[in-house]
């Protein structure tokens, strides 16, 4: 309980000071104001953690004291100059105005319920995504043990040093303040809210009405991979929230600090993940074309922000001689044909139906029938003919996802036939993966994402020609196409690369606020979004709710799955985790001989109290440890220790690991 209270206190301190600074910087819209506070808070977080890390002081009370000191300093500096209360009251008024649109109200209830479920899932169940456990949490856990972030000498997993650190700094803060790993998903849950706010802010910058902007943001909030990641300690939502925030500030014509807020958001994004670099050209183009005034300041903000956020690449160069630390080290064929093939395969991945395996696919038909009945009943008294037309069009749109498996099958076949006809059988490959899988790492954007991206660019062009939105709206609607091309040129093909496109998809989503101008279209899209959101979350392949829908039998609920099984099944060591949690004291000191592919994080335990000593090849002793674990990979490569007679090997070997217990001195 102490950890939760301390974490809440730290969040309140960050929020209070950041809101005061944001009000002083005076972004025009409520979304811009809240995003300014978000960016200021993250800037504080990063700077405070690096400052404390210099002295090895990253732990609960020094971190809380540092946040309190910064909050007091900001409050004193902004006294009598900040109107936070006025801005917040104005925001509530704007929200009420937006929710007067019935489509926005329905979407708002769905997104709020989805976010509540995601937060509960993140707090109440263990993280079990493979990358999360072996990368993000492992890195933050080592930093916590060392008393600060940095570039530790860790031959067990060198790639965790190479990646930009901002997301793990946020995770580190929750671990240090909360005293456990149960709060780590709050970083991405906050980013989810910021991303929805960012889409609203972009839509307002495109001159959409408040209700239209709210619909745009909430539609983006229903997209499956975005909703799924809100309960994880991954980092794609965080990157997207910063990139979209940067665009919001670039669209702000009047706030004097907007270019520099855009720069800060850009720097935070670049310091979070390598994929943020793909967004830099897009941000520069937006900065150049959006307004004639202060063009140089906007461009300078983006360039300087990107340069500041690239500091970790300088660290990599100093440590390894390579700007990216040598990761990823997969060779990419950048010839014209392979690049086009990667782009086409990735585009086909947009055609999917997450969480709708078997008969659950027909829940879209159920939603269409309910929508038809509701709209006809609502409008029947005013005009029966209009009610039937409205309901029929909306229901037809809501029913479109039922066709997704057939569309995907034809698209897959057309892709293979194309390359065979061109004599490139080597490129006529399967596109990959089951389109009904719902998981935070491999899912894309569901039927709503595919439908709106297919039509959104055309709608944006028509709207711009009619003067409904400025020309930059067409550029933003084109962002997912740019993202696909950039990924195809820069990276090897991954069927799980959809999460790298969150920022471009969210930026394009800002133009989806035009939907309420056609009432049946808006209701049809809302029905698809709400259904897709529910299916993705409840039928999460890795973390199923266990709630029986149309497809039976329902899988075992993740909520009742013990940690050793839930986490161990994903990282392939369930017996090991069960052994450690059952036999090793929570505050024990443990020696580890492992390889980069081993899940060292699981030895910390949920309370993060165990101390881990990483043993090099041939080590004879772990002087302070009472246990030593040696992975099968370490033994197979000759990297295991050569322990002295003071260690006794246990007969049981969970998941092939060798286990030693101290029996005496060496």
Walk me through what this model shows.
The chain folds into 3 domains: 90-320, no CATH class; 336-538, no CATH class; 571-662. A hairpin with an 8-residue loop joins β4 (647-649) and β5. The chain has helices at residues 2-25, 30-53, 60-77, 84-99, 102-124, 130-146, 159-162, 166-178, 186-205, 210-221, 224-229, 236-251, 258-270, 279-289, 295-309, 311-320, 336-348, 363-379, 384-399, 404-421, 446-465, 472-477, 479-490, 502-509, 519-538, 563-571, 574-583, 632-636, and strands spanning 589-593, 611-614, 627-630, 647-649, 658-662. A 5-stranded mixed beta sheet has the order 2-1-3-5-4. The model has no long low-confidence stretch (mean pLDDT 92). With 666 residues, it is mainly α. 59% of the residues lie in helices and 3% in strands.
Strand order of the largest sheet: 2-1-3-5-4
* Cα end-to-end separation: 41 Å
Low-confidence stretches are: none
Rg on CA atoms, Å:
26 Å
Q: Could you tell me the mean pLDDT? A: 92
Strand content: under 5%
What is the number of helices?
28
The count of DSSP E runs of length 2 or more, i.e. the number of strands, is 5
User: Helical amount among residues, as a percent range?
Assistant: 55-70%
* Secondary-structure content class: mainly alpha
């Amino acid at each position: 309980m102490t950890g939760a209270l301390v974490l809440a206190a730290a969040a309140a301190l960050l929020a209070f000071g950041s809101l005061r600074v944001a009000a002083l910087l005076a972004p025009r819209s409520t979304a811009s104001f809240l995003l300014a506070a978000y960016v200021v808070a993250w800037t504080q977080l990063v700077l405070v953690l690096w400052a404390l890390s210099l002295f090895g002081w990253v732990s609960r009370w020094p971190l809380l004291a540092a946040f309190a000191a910064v909050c007091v300093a900001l409050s004193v500096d902004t006294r009598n100059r900040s109107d936070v209360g006025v801005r917040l009251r104005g925001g509530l008024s704007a929200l009420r105005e937006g929710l007067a649109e019935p489509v926005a109200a329905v979407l708002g209830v769905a997104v709020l319920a989805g976010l509540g479920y995601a937060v509960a899932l993140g707090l109440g169940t263990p993280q079990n995504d493979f990358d999360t456990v072996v990368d993000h949490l492992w890195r933050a856990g080592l930093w916590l043990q060392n008393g600060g972030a940095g570039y530790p000498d860790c031959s067990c997993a060198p790639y965790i040093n190479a990646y930009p650190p901002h997301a793990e700094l946020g995770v580190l803060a929750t671990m240090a303040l909360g005293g456990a790993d149960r709060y780590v998903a709050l970083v991405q849950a906050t980013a989810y809210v910021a991303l929805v706010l960012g889409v609203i802010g972009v839509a307002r910058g495109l001159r959409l009405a408040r209700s239209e902007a709210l619909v745009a943001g909430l539609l983006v909030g229903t997209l499956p991979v975005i909703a799924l990641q809100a309960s994880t300690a991954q980092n794609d939502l965080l990157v997207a929230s910063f990139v979209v925030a940067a665009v919001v500030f670039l669209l702000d014509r009047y706030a004097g600090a907007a270019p520099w807020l855009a720069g800060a958001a850009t720097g935070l994004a670049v310091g979070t993940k390598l994929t943020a670099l793909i967004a830099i050209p897009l941000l520069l183009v937006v900065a150049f074309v959006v307004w004639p005034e202060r063009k140089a300041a906007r461009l300078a903000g983006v360039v300087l922000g990107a340069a500041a956020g690239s500091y970790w690449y300088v660290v990599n160069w100093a440590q390894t001689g390579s700007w990216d630390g040598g990761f990823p080290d997969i060779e990419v064929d950048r010839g014209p044909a392979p690049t086009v093939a990667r782009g086409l395969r990735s585009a086909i991945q947009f055609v999917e139906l997450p969480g709708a395996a078997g008969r659950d696919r027909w829940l879209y038909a159920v939603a269409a029938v309910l929508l038809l009945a509701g709209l006809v009943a609502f409008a029947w008294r005013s005009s029966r003919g209009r009610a039937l037309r409205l309901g029929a069009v909306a229901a037809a749109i809501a029913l479109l996802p039922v066709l997704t498996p057939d569309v995907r099958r034809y698209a897959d076949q057309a892709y293979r036939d194309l390359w065979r006809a061109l004599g490139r059988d080597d490129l006529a490959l399967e596109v990959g993966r089951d389109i009904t899988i719902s998981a935070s790492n491999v899912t894309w954007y569901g039927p709503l994402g595919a439908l709106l991206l297919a039509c959104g660019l055309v709608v944006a062009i028509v709207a711009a020609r009619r003067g409904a939105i400025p020309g930059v709206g067409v550029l933003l609607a084109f962002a997912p196409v740019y993202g696909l091309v950039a990924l195809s040129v820069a990276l090897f093909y991954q069927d799980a690369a959809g999460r790298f496109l969150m920022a471009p998809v969210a930026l394009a989503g800002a133009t989806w606020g035009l939907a309420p101008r056609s009432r049946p279209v808006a209701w049809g899209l809302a029905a698809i979004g709400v259904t897709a959101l529910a299916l993705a979350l409840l039928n999460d392949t890795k973390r199923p709710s266990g709630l029986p829908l149309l497809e039976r039998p329902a899988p075992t609920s993740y909520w009742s799955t013990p940690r050793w099984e839930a986490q161990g099944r994903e990282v392939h060591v369930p017996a090991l985790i069960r052994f450690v949690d059952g036999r090793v004291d929570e505050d024990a000191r443990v020696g580890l001989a492992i390889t980069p592919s081993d899940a060292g994080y699981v030895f910390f335990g949920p309370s993060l109290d165990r101390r881990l000593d990483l043993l090099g090849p041939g080590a004879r002793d772990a002087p302070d440890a009472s246990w030593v674990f040696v992975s099968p990979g370490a033994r197979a490569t000759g990297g295991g220790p050569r322990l002295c007679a003071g260690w006794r090997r246990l007969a049981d070997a969970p998941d092939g690991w060798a286990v030693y217990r101290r029996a005496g001195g060496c």
